[in-house]
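**User:** You know discrete backbone vocabularies at least as well as I do. Would you mind producing a protein record, from residues through to fold? Write it directly below this note and I will take it from there.

**Assistant:**
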Amino acid sequence: MGPKKKKTEKQKDFVKPKLKVGKTRAKPDNYTDTSFTARSIALPTQSIRKKAESADGGDIDLEHYLSLTRHHSSSTRKEVLNYIEKHLPSNPRGLKEVVTRTIPLITDQASEVATALVSLLAACGKKQPGLLELHIRPITLFILSAMTHLQPSVRNNSTKYLAILIEQVPEALLTSSFSKIMKAYFSLLSWSLRNDSKSKSVALTSSASLSTISKKARASHLNVLRNFLSVSLLQDETIDDSYMSSERYVTHPLSAKYLFPSTPQPYSHYKLFVQEIKKSNPFSLSEDNAGNDSTLTLSDLDSLSSEDLDTRQKIMIDIFLDPLQRNLKDIVKEAGDAGREANSCLQVLQDFSDKQNQSS
């Protein structure tokens, strides 16, 4: 009896028990429970991520709010921009982060986001003078992209950002991107730089196809264009350069000539650290203007620097003046807000022409 019982018990170890559905196998007698539950400890006053100190003395998680500027909801992006503007960081590093992370929104299609971003960039420029000048190249790049964007809503809001640069950092804007902005304006307003019949017909078709919103935005574009032409061509009256006056320095009358340049990368037009294929002289004669010495053409703009006033005036006279006057006169005939703004632009061009005649 004994050996049979032992044999039966040994066989039980090799028999697979049949379990019912939903029930687990019974745990062995020597099972030890090793599971545990962790409890989190909340420390609101401590954080691994450093928060930015705002101007009103409070701390905000700047990284978190800047990440929300890429949210899929336009209302969220607008609210985040408004919140950041009210809690701008006091340190220059935080302001730099705000500008670099928000300028891609210049090509945002939502009008409410554009309005909030314009207000934010203007506030950043006023809070730290020189901040927008430091980032003038990427800001201008996004503005030019917006002025030639496929979406009408982006184009309609593009010159609002340009108005900020004209108001706060006009000299840095002109020395770096005068020709590019003028070409972008012709594309924005569906104008042609050539005076042939084909270009005129294309311009008329594009102007007639403008929507009501685009026609309203055109008056705003022309208003910014008037300010841009004023600071570009009438620099002596619009830009204060008293900081370079020799009267401020009593040590020597030539002290002003040995000051540090007031613009970033003042010798960039020499292209000392750029390797490129040399082109012909930008002031060389072309087939179309062989009888007029050193007349510029549209193809010469890529190789010209507009850092000085004389070069900008020559670019305007040789390339942009006649097409500008021709297209502005067409808008004046339409009357309305756009007609009034176009008339003011023509007045600036007339003042520029009178000044050139007096100097010659």
In short: Residues 172-236+297-360 form one domain. The beta strands are 52-53, 59-60. The CA atoms of residues 79 and 214 lie 26 Å apart.
